TrEMBL record:
InterPro entries the record matches: ATP-grasp (IPR011761), ATP_grasp_subdomain_1 (IPR013815), D-Ala_lig_Van_CS (IPR000291), D_ala_D_ala (IPR005905), Dala_Dala_lig_C (IPR011095), Dala_Dala_lig_N (IPR011127), PreATP-grasp_dom_sf (IPR016185)
Binding site for Mg(2+) 2: E333, N335
Entries under NCBIfam families matching the protein: D_ala_D_alaTIGR, PRK01966.1-4
Record flagged with keyword Repeat: no
Entry similarity comment: Belongs to the D-alanine--D-alanine ligase family.
Any one of the GO CC terms: cytosol
Protein name as it appears in the record: D-alanine--D-alanine ligase
HAMAP family cross-referenced by the UniProt entry: Dala_Dala_lig
Length: 376
């Protein structure tokens, strides 16, 4: 498959969303926004949904069907729609639809995939590996960066090795907990309370608990292990401000950084949880640019670029920081496929930095089309 397409047709973009993770609904919301923003005069767009059971289907592509309307009205992929698959041909990769009592029909060659999957089985290098094997260009980070950034425990190892500041933490697996809960409690006690307990490979604040003292640790680990057998127990950044920075790769590979943004959650939320992030009517304020002491914004942007390169990221990432009471900076995490609706932090930061949402979507597609497949 070539980086350019024949002049007789537009580049074909397969927008892939949904997936098997607990962030299925958020992926659908993201996809609705991207489907609405892609310029159909420039690109031929094919919406591909992955149902919660792993089935790939040809979705309707109706952005309105993919909106979030409350806890009881979360969007999802319709797994009963026509199955679709990537079929490797001699010189291309085609999308093939198979329906009962119908011969297989091809939707044509795929030039680039825009994977809008959050969490395991999508943001963690698994689907990126499949695209690499098939020789398909795709938007965003490769296998290694996706896997390292998804696993918060290993992300800390890589960032620490690169000389970047992170919060102290310990990893407690479900097997560790079942084998010796007392030793696990002792590890947590050494960190000191309060703590945050979170799934090591989760996102969207799903499964996260703030543990104020030792009496709450067991429940916090039980909730985290419900979503991931690997839990991260981390020191709480008390009194810190949550500030984020967007990274967008230039065509020459240089990581460019956005204006930083600060999240301020209403008093009815102790931290930036799922409801504060996504549900309508929740009181969360955003300051773009974040009001930071002299020199801190520049340092934060430089650290964001360093974190991006430390994990060998490509395309885009959102790097989240804690600005401590003494104005020192700590890297919280890297998101290789951040929330991507127009009201999400990443697009808002780039809009404030002079890159509006449709241009941001277009730039990511063009960057992926220009990128070689295979080792690079």
């Amino acid at each position: 498959m070539n980086a350019t397409t024949p002049e007789s047709r537009k580049p074909r973009v397969a927008v892939v969303f949904g997936g098997r993770s607990s962030e299925h609904a958020i992926s659908c919301v993201t996809a609705g926004s991207v489907l609405k923003a892609i310029d159909r005069d420039v690109y031929d767009v094919v919406p591909i949904g992955i149902a919660t059971d792993g089935r790939w289907v040809l979705e309707s592509g109706d952005p309105d069907r993919l909106r979030i309307e409350g806890v009881g009205r979360l969007p999802s992929v319709d797994g009963e729609r026509a199955p679709v698959a990537l079929a490797q041909q001699a010189a291309s990769t085609d999308l093939v639809v198979t329906e009962p009592s119908q011969p297989p029909r091809t939707l044509g060659e795929v030039d680039v995939v825009f994977p809008l999957l959050h969490g395991p089985w999508g943001e963690d290098g698994t689907i990126q590996g499949m695209f690499e094997m098939a020789g398909v260009r795709y938007v965003g980070a490769g296998v290694l960066a996706s896997a390292v950034s998804m696993d918060k425990a290993y992300m800390k190892v890589v960032l620490t090795a690169a000389g970047l500041p992170v919060l102290p933490s310990v990893t407690i697996t479900a097997r560790d907990w079942a084998r010796d809960a007392g030793a696990c409690r002792a590890q947590a006690d050494e960190l000191g309370y309060p703590l945050f307990v979170k799934p090591a490979r989760g996102g969207s604040s799903i499964g996260i608990s703030k543990v104020h003292d030792a009496t709450e640790l067991d429940a916090g680990l039980e909730e985290a292990h419900r979503h991931d057998p690997k839990a991260l127990v981390e020191v709480s950044a008390e009194g810190a401000r949550e500030v984020e920075c967007g990274v967008l790769q230039a065509l020459d590979g240089t990581p460019e950084t956005s204006q930083p943004a600060e999240l301020r959650v209403g008093s009815d939320h102790e931290f930036y949880d799922f409801a504060a992030k996504y549900l309508p009517g929740e009181h969360t304020e955003i300051d773009i640019p974040a009001e930071l002491p002299p020199g801190v914004a520049e340092e934060l942007r430089a650290l964001a670029a360093r974190a991006f390169e430390a994990v060998s990221c490509e395309g885009l990432a959102r790097v989240d920081f804690f600005v401590m009471p003494d104005s020192s900076l700590v890297v919280n995490e890297i998101n290789t496929m951040p929330g991507f609706t127009p009201t999400s932090m990443y697009p808002q930061m780039w809009a404030a930095s002079g890159v509006p949402y449709p241009e941001l979507v277009d730039r990511l597609i063009r960057l992926a089309l220009a990128r070689d497949t295979g080792l690079r």
